[in-house]
């Protein structure tokens, strides 16, 4: 069970799958979701199984979400800001150029 | 127009910050590109915004990062660009990066790779379930957001596992259990290294006091654990393992894995630097000169990206590289380079002991056939073994058959495991098996951003 150790200072809100999430300055999308107990961030591209944060440092890409309609964003590398619209990443990822 | 800078440093952890301070102090034009919004790297992550509460929980070794961060902020002539993701390095050290949704490039006279370490992959049954993270991930949540977890189980081995446990105790949420994988007889086998490490006994004492704190707080500790498996459908619900001949099952919704950290090789591999297998650290490291220059001229590695030596060494290596570059550029540096080399040797005395005691468990170096090793493409160890049996000689052939390392993480997570599985099944050394070829982009880039970007502009001296 997640728990914050600092007194409540929530000031930022954004949405995840339409649900309003309260966040604190300094949070990433991933940490705000983690604090809210949301663990399923995407469906794996191969089996469709749920995935969530794993490394929190931008290495594993298991936290991929759509941010304001843009796919393939790493939730753990995306700072929260007011009114972001975040949703689960479903399906494959294109990385080639 | 493309700017030309004397020194471009990738990464603003202890190594990158220290390198920038030294290079700039010698009058070299210095740029620091870093992905995070604040300096600190992972070890001092969010150091500038840490609350008193977090500093207390995270401890002295974290808090001391504040000094270096403020030295870095105050250094004259450092062009620090947070929020920059390097996605390619072209010929002649043309560093291409994305910042605020826009890509641009800087040409580096000298390039310093200070991209640090990542957690060693810990492939276990069930490790892809939501609720299972690395131990480092829980620490990052604590550092950036003051988030801790109640009822978590930490499993694996290494100093970080105990450090995290001690921090969670101080945060008022002691782990439900620690499931350590170090075989019981190993401590005796490491006696010679332990004696050598007495020269750096402050580390040993710190380690012991951490372990004591965790034990005293009443955390259940299982030693010598084997055959670890994580259970759950949709998310983790329990961890199963054997310890001292008894089967255990602990219900939990949070499992943190750790088996040490390894150099992040993405940039040095992309550049084609020569690497070698370090069998004590069980990972690849770039070949480095005494000044930490790689086999590619004018490319240096400072910090754990060159081999795991810890935060203090990373800082000293950063200073060393900054000064070595200044020396090459004809600026006098006095006796400091020699002093740093000596201090680094002293600092390294504890490593052989830690490496031997905490060598990764057999289960994660050689996972069962059914265990997924490539998380992105969901490829099991068994299918890699089959592909090797059918004649695939190395990681790149396995990649083209099975798509291992072709997903978005580009092998960051599976790379070392794939090498060790191929090495084991083919009987070849890890050096002969080698590693994935790393290609750009290092991170996926929105197509629209790429379309707006064009690198082939003439170089110009930076007017500044
Ligand atoms: S959690 Fe690993 S990249 Fe975000």
UniProtKB/TrEMBL annotation, chain A:
InterPro entries: 2Fe-2S-bd_N (IPR042204), 2Fe-2S_ferredoxin-like_sf (IPR036010), 2Fe-2S_ferredoxin-type (IPR001041). It comes from the Bacteria. Signal peptide: none annotated. SUPFAM superfamilies: 2Fe-2S ferredoxin-like. The keyword Disulfide bond does not apply. Residues 10-97 form the 2Fe-2S ferredoxin-type domain. One of its GO terms (molecular function) is oxidoreductase activity. This is (2Fe-2S)-binding protein. It comes from Paracoccus alkanivorans.
Automatic annotation (TrEMBL), chain B:
Residues 372-422 form the BFD-like [2Fe-2S]-binding domain. SUPFAM superfamilies: FAD/NAD(P)-binding domain. Keywords: Oxidoreductase. PROSITE patterns: PROKAR_LIPOPROTEIN. Residues 5-318 form the FAD/NAD(P)-binding domain. Gene3D superfamilies: BFD-like [2Fe-2S]-binding domain, FAD/NAD(P)-binding domain. This is FAD-dependent oxidoreductase. It comes from Paracoccus alkanivorans.
């Amino acid at each position: 069970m997640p728990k914050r150790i600092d007194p409540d200072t929530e000031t930022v809100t954004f949405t995840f799958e339409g649900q309003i999430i309260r966040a604190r300055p300094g949070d990433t999308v991933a940490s705000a979701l983690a604090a809210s107990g949301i663990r399923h961030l995407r469906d794996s591209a191969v089996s469709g199984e749920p995935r969530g944060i794993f490394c929190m440092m931008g290495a594993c890409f298991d936290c991929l979400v759509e941010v304001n309609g843009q796919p393939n964003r790493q939730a753990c590398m995306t700072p929260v800001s007011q009114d972001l619209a975040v949703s689960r990443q479903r399906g494959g990822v294109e990385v080639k150029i | 127009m493309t700017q030309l800078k004397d020194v471009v440093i990738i990464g603003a952890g202890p190594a990158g910050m220290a390198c920038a301070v030294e290079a700039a102090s010698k009058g070299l034009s210095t740029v620091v590109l870093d992905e995070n919004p604040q300096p600190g790297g992972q070890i001092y992550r969010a150091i500038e915004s840490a609350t008193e509460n977090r500093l207390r929980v995270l401890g002295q070794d974290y808090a001391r990062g504040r000094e270096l961060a403020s030295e870095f902020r105050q250094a004259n002539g450092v062009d620090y660009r947070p929020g920059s993701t390097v996605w390619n390095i072209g010929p002649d050290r043309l560093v291409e990066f994305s910042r605020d949704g826009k890509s641009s490039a800087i040409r580096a006279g000298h390039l310093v790779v200070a991209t640090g370490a990542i957690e060693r992959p810990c492939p276990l049954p069930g490790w892809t379930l939501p609720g299972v993270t690395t131990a480092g991930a829980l620490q990052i949540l604590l550092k950036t957001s003051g988030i801790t977890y109640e009822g978590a189980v930490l499993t694996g081995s290494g100093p970080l596992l105990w450090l995290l446990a001690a921090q969670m105790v101080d945060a008022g949420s002691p782990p439900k259990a620690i499931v350590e994988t170090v075989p019981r007889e190993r401590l005796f086998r490491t006696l010679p290294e332990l004696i050598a490490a007495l020269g750096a006994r402050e580390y040993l004492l710190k380690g012991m006091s951490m372990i004591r704190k965790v034990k005293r707080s009443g955390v259940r500790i299982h030693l010598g654990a084997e055959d670890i498996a994580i259970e759950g459908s949709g998310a983790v619900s329990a961890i199963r393992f054997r310890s001292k001949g008894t089967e255990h099952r602990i219900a939990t919704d949070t499992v943190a894995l750790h088996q040490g950290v390894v150099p992040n090789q993405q940039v040095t591999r992309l550049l084609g630097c020569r690497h070698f297998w370090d069998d004590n650290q069980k990972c690849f490291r770039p070949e480095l000169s005494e000044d930490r220059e790689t086999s590619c001229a004018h490319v240096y590695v400072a910090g754990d990206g060159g081999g795991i030596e810890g935060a203090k060494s990373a800082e000293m290596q950063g200073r060393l590289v900054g000064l070595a570059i200044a020396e090459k550029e004809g600026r006098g540096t006095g006796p400091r380079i020699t002093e740093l080399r000596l201090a680094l040797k002293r600092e390294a005395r504890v490593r052989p002991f830690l490496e031997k005691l905490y060598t990764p468990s057999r289960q994660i170096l050689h996972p069962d056939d059914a265990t997924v090793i490539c998380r992105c493409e969901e490829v099991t160890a068994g299918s890699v073994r089959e592909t090797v049996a059918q004649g695939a000689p190395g990681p790149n052939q396995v990649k083209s058959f099975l798509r291992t390392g072709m997903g978005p993480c580009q092998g960051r997570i599976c790379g070392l495991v794939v090498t060790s599985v191929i090495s084991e099944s083919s009987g070849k050394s890890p050096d002969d098996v080698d590693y994935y070829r790393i290609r750009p982009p290092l991170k996926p880039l929105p197509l629209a951003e790429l379309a707006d970007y064009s690198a082939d502009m003439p170089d110009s001296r930076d007017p500044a």
